[in-house]
Write a structure and sequence with these properties.
The chain contains two helices and no strands.
């Protein structure tokens, strides 16, 4: 069985495209991502928000006794 010249050229073209897409993907993966601007925070501010006290009765009075034992 012999392969026609046209089929052979089609396979070569497909392999070239595949090689090119692999090279492009490798290039994207190895390049450093662009630095995203970070929002400015006031000095001393945390990124987690502000703490709020627990409501009365939910302070875990019985659990505090457990730790004292």
């Amino acid at each position: 069985m012999s392969t026609s010249e046209r089929s052979f050229n089609q396979v070569k073209a497909i392999l070239r495209k595949l090689d090119r897409s692999i090279s492009e993907a490798r290039e994207r993966r190895t390049q450093a991502p662009p630095a995203a601007p970070t929002p400015a925070r006031p000095p001393g501010a945390s990124g987690y928000g502000r703490a709020t006290p627990l409501p009365p009765g939910r302070t875990g009075g019985s659990s505090l006794q457990r730790w004292d034992n």
